[in-house]
Amino acid sequence: MGLRLAAVAVLATLTMAVKYTVDSGVAFPEALFWRQAITIPILLAWLALRREVRRLGTQRLPAHFGRALMGAVGMGFTFGAPVLLPLAEAVTLGFTTPIFAVIFSALLLKEQVGPYRWAAVLLGFCGVLAIARPDGHLPLFGSLVGLGAGLMVALISIQVRDLTRTEEPLSIVFWFAALSTPVLALFLPFYASAHSTEQWLLLGALGVLGCVGQLLLTASLRFGQVASVIVMDYTALAWATLYGWTIWGETPARSTWLGAPPILAAGLVIVWREHRLGKQPAAPGTLPPPAS
Q1: CA–CA dist 201, 208 (Å, integer)
Q2: In percent, how much of the chain has pLDDT > 90?
Q3: 156: closest CA among 291, 267, 6?
Q4: Rounded to whole angstroms, what are the CA distances from 73 to 63, 66, 267?
């Protein structure tokens, strides 16, 4: 749980850093590129020092490529939401992942979903309506991007769940970065520009924070049960509120305080119920993030 708390703190800082970097004048697609590209040499160097590069071997490259494409899209939503919305609201909408995971479990995996989880889905979407209602303070497009982040992470969870049957988490992280970086590089001719020293330092920080956060996530799942450690993910809201207030002067609106508790409660009910049923939750904790 300590590792998970550290992972959430690092990834919340990454989310803040992406928003700050884009605000400084760096194009969003370029920020995503460097966030992924820097991960590759860091992981290769770390594994080379441990003489464990062989751990990256895979027989499922097409599956990794599909996960990389979906992950790149998901990362765009995950980091796009904080750029378009206040941090606290963006993070709260991202907590809808367990809700979408239940829906996809029923529709795509044909799993039997009982009344507890369907009630949690309904409760969660009531919270979403309270935060992102059409006459509210949030822009509609930003709200849709925030919900898209939760939806994409739920979809990617299904891919990652399949990959973990044969692949190490570290291998999944590496191939995601290695295969998505060339895709993101396609945008560089249109968006890349000269940067100041501060902007280059920020771009470097994105890669380091993303890599460290993913390694901490992996370690937390190695030493703790998923259903236990992912509860710590909700501390991201505290970090988002703190960063939003201290850096941008953002304070969560009244509708956010009204809508956040049902969304968090829905996620906790889903995690609790799936733990009771002996299943692995398809929740944010099952992934290295996006996007974080």
Answers
A1: 11
A2: 41
A3: 291
A4: 16, 11, 23
Q: Left if phi > 0, otherwise alpha if psi is -120 to 50, otherwise beta: which for 27?
A: beta
Select from 138, 98, 126, 120 the least CA-distant residue to 282: 98
pLDDT tens readout for residues 83-92 = 999 999 999 9
The pLDDT value given to residue 221: 64
CA dihedral of 195, 201, 202, 207, whole degrees rounded to 10? 110
CA dist., res. 15 & res. 192, Å (int): 20
pTM, two decimal places? 0.85
264: Cβ contacts below 8 Å, ≥ 6 apart: 95, 234, 237
CA angle 31, 141, 177 (to 5 degrees): 30
Count the neighbouring beta carbons within 10 Å of the beta carbon of residue 201.
11
Q: What is the pLDDT of residue 282?
A: 45
The reported pLDDT for the residue numbered 227 is 55
* Structure tokens given for 176: 């995601």
Run of H or E including 188: helix 188-191
Q: How many Cβ atoms are within 10 Å of 107's Cβ, its own excluded?
A: 10
Number of H helices, E strands in the chain: 14, 0
Asked whether the predicted pLDDT for residue 287 surpasses 50, the reply is no
Check: CB of residue 57 under 8 Å from CB of residue 174.
Answer: no
Q: What is the mean pLDDT of residues 147-161?
A: 84
Tens of pLDDT, residue by residue over 217-250, are 767 766 666 555 667 788 899 999 999 999 999 9
How far lies 224's CA from each of 8, 15, 34, 66, 240, in Å?
A: 15, 25, 31, 28, 25
Give start and end residues of each alpha helix (H) in the chain: 2-23, 28-37, 39-49, 61-84, 87-94, 97-107, 115-132, 140-163, 169-185, 188-191, 197-223, 226-229, 236-248, 254-276
